[in-house]
């Protein structure tokens, strides 16, 4: 039994279905959309088209097309997801609207990269990207709530090294997964800094918008027109409630000095420049909306940053400082700097990353490099589309191989942890299914889902 494809259906629920390609419509063989309701969980419904789409995804992952039991398990997965949503509503488990907007923005960006351009998406679906984004927002939010509910249920699950070794020992050797080429790649990222004149220009622009709002124009309308925050067109700049310590320190400090309804003067954070309105305070939580303008850097700004990184590169090559120490001290990328600059494998948290998981730009860069070498400073665009400069360190390359606990401990540990989480979710389902109203179409009673 391969530990990447455990048969336990609750592992599939927790770690697969949330990433379904939600923009695809399921169709029957005649090309018509199937939309019969086949299950209800409290106020949530499952359509025949939902099952068709989930089953299609199951097949795309190598599932058995002739297995009726597999189709029943896919339906059970969907029912458990709806049960998670229903229980999240009962238990008041939510996700901030700002996080939903950020996730939506990321998914739309990925979709544009996959299809080729915004114009191609709009032509294919016959609607603007903004209309399409609004249409799928509820699906994204539901998926995020499901994930948060799963994390709440399994938060106390851990595995010991002894349990990891036992899990590995119980896998037949001929069933161990085969891993493709893996690499260790690190980066040190520096964001350019702006001149005082450029900063003053942005502040003046924001002060002008602030004056318009104080004179009576609607904050949300101004945010939709001018804010560069992802999702501002939908949210009007409102990012919802956050607790202390969750937002950029400069943003939070400014917001907490305001009175409800008061609008700040421009404040600078790592994301750019903001004007902030405090909407409400509730104990340790506060609700704000803002207008963000992100900096645009000149070639001089980029040149200055490249020169700085080139000096860091020279120190590393001359063994005056290790790459890991330089990343921890100088890198502006929070996700990699705390890991010595290295990219992490998505689920296991290890620093050996499969080459097919790498950003294409990074893959094509290291493909021309020798192991152990460091690039000259490279200008690139970050996920938020802002410009930055980085150096890449190609530390190691691991050839394709069968899973080995000495090489792939982090992956095996994650598989063992997922198995324990799936068992906890299975137990939770049995305990929780009687707490909500669930009804199943008679055509699917033979699946024995509720028995």
From TrEMBL:
Secretion signal, residue range per the UniProt entry: 1-26
Keyword Signal: yes
Entry EC no(s): 5.2.1.8
PpiC domain mapped to chain residues: 180-280, 283-378
Matching PROSITE patterns: PPIC_PPIASE_2 (PS50198)
MF annotations from Gene Ontology: peptidyl-prolyl cis-trans isomerase activity
EC main group: isomerase
Keyword entries, A-Z: Isomerase, Rotamase, Signal
Entry-linked Gene3D superfamilies: 3.10.50.40, Porin chaperone SurA, peptide-binding domain
InterPro entries on file: OMP_Chaperone_SurA, PPIase_dom_sf, PPIase_PpiC, Trigger_fact/SurA_dom_sf
The protein's name in its UniProt record: Peptidylprolyl isomerase
